[in-house]
Amino acid sequence: IMDFDKIIERRNTHSSKWDKMEESYGISKVDGLPMHVAEMDFRPPNIIQDKLSRMHQHGFYGYFADYSDYHGAIHWWMKHRHNWDLGNSTIFTTHGLVNGMALCVEALTQSKDQIIMLTPMYHAFFSVLNATDRVVREFPLTLKSGRYELDFSSYEKQLTGNETMLIFCSPHNPGGRVWSIDELKQVADFCIKNNLILVCDEIHHDLIMPGYKHNVMATAAPEIADHLVMLTANTKTFNIAGAHTGNVIIKNPELSKKFETRLKMLGHSPNALGIHMATAGYSPEGAEWLDNLIPYLEENFKIFNSGINNIPGCKAIHAEGLYLAWVDFVGTGMSQEEVRKRIEKDAKITTVYGTDMGKGGETFMRFNIATQKSRVVEAVERMQAAFKDLQ
């Protein structure tokens, strides 16, 4: 079983998370604490390491063929972990899920189409859409008593008739909400009624905190099947993001055909190492590793959230899923610039800015707590020191 407390040196390994702090934030990697990139500081399950080790011993890294084991592993995992029978849905493999979402936009919408984002929302999706000629429509979630809620009566009023797609994060990134079946049905009904393709990003769906249950959109609202594109991956689950291996799962043959045509046009094919790693992870051994990880993350959340909530004016949203803490600084009365200065210059911590997440994120920062407990404790101490005049 994994020792999640063990610190493994990651600096000077071409790590996006650890080695670009200076360049991106002006924080030295010598004493900086990176909490911005959504990857963990834990080694993946041994079964993934063993698979790569066997490949290394064999010494060949040629083109990949025969996806039956890989698809079988996905079918097995979704059935056993999420009670989702994929049936005859088509599984496409993309270069990660940001790429998968980008391909959905390219293949399934037209120039000038309007695409709905329920904000605040994962910043990388904004980066993609802002590089297209599609029109982004931001429909804000409602924050009630520290919990995000959907407001479809408000969304209906904002429709122009030119919307063709809705992008949805389940569980919600960055807010950590695990949506109920009733809420998922509301999303599905809204998309059916307004003839929208629903792209449902479930990359964090294995990372659910104890006491909560994730429901897969495809099973919660089977009536959406003809309008639905599911995005899944185990790169977050097992900390193998560099493998860039994501699944785009489509039941509707017409949407499937359009997507397949776009992949062919781009000469798109996945890399063999990513396929082998993903297949190895979706296994009983991978499940056991994950079941040990979740309580560790829950404890990290408790340490981080209670420490942050002890700083007057700071409020960490209670996370039901993900390993990302979403903190509101509005109560400090400080400008975003002042908050950033204290976090980056004084605490020497990197975060994702809520301003990059669309409407509703303006006073927030996102922190990654999927690291060793000692570092979470240190992050809290640094933050409390940086805001000590508020104590």
Compact summary:
This protein has 391 residues and is of the alpha/beta class. Helix content is 40%, strand content 16%. The chain has helices at 16-19, 21-25, 46-58, 68-82, 97-108, 123-130, 152-158, 181-193, 217-220, 253-265, 272-281, 284-309, 336-346, 373-386, and strands at 33-34, 90-94, 114-119, 135-140, 142-144, 147-149, 163-169, 197-201, 228-232, 246-250, 315-316, 324-328, 349-350, 352-353, 364-368.
Give the biggest beta sheet: 7 strands, mixed
End-to-end CA span: 40 Å
Question: From the alpha-carbon coordinates, what is the Rg to the nearest angstrom?
Answer: 21 Å
Average pLDDT figure: 97
Q: Indicate the overall shape.
A: globular
How many strand segments?
15
Topology as H/E string? HHEHHEHEHEEEHEHEHEEHHHEEHEEEH
In terms of topology, how is this protein built?
Blueprint: H1 16-19, H2 21-25, E1 33-34, H3 46-58, H4 68-82, E2 90-94, H5 97-108, E3 114-119, H6 123-130, E4 135-140, E5 142-144, E6 147-149, H7 152-158, E7 163-169, H8 181-193, E8 197-201, H9 217-220, E9 228-232, E10 246-250, H10 253-265, H11 272-281, H12 284-309, E11 315-316, E12 324-328, H13 336-346, E13 349-350, E14 352-353, E15 364-368, H14 373-386
Parallel strand pairs: 1-13, 3-4, 3-7, 7-8, 8-9
Antiparallel strand pairs: 2-10, 5-6, 9-10, 11-12, 12-15, 14-15
Helix pairs in contact: 3-11, 4-11, 5-6, 5-10, 12-14
